[in-house]
Amino acid sequence: MNVIDFDHIVLCVADVGRTVALYESLLGMEPRQARPGKWSLHFGRSQLRFALRMPSEQIRSSNA
Predict the structure, then answer these.
(1) Which of 44, 12, 51, 16 is nearest to 30 (CA)?
(2) Do 43 and 27 touch, CB atoms closer than 8 A?
(3) How far is the C-alpha of 19 from the C-alpha of 25, rounded, in Å?
(4) What are the pLDDT digits (tens) for 25-48?
(5) How far apart are CA 44 and CA 35, in angstroms?
(6) pTM to 2 decimals?
């Protein structure tokens, strides 16, 4: 199977602001804020979305 396109990918990161700045400066992606704290970077028809990474304790308790 060959991937020819994708709509979006979500990355869980510790610092959304720093991550957006990095991808924008290195790759020239266009940042857009959907709502406070929710950012995505666009390139063509595709996008990367960023979410805050949850501390491991919260992940374990939400899976219980």
Answers:
(1) 44
(2) yes
(3) 10
(4) 998 888 988 888 788 899 888 888
(5) 21
(6) 0.64
Q: What is the mean pLDDT of the chain?
A: 80
pLDDT of res. 55 = 65
Token pair 């028809």: residue:
45
For residues 38 and 43, what is the distance between their CA atoms, to the nearest angstrom?
Answer: 17
Alpha-carbon distance of 4 to 56, in angstroms, equals 34
Domains and CATH numbers, the chain: 8-56 (3.10.180.10)
What span, in angstroms and rounded, lies between the C-alpha atoms of 28 and 53?
24
Residue 24: the pLDDT is: 92
Which residue in the block uniquely carries the two structure tokens 């290195």? 26
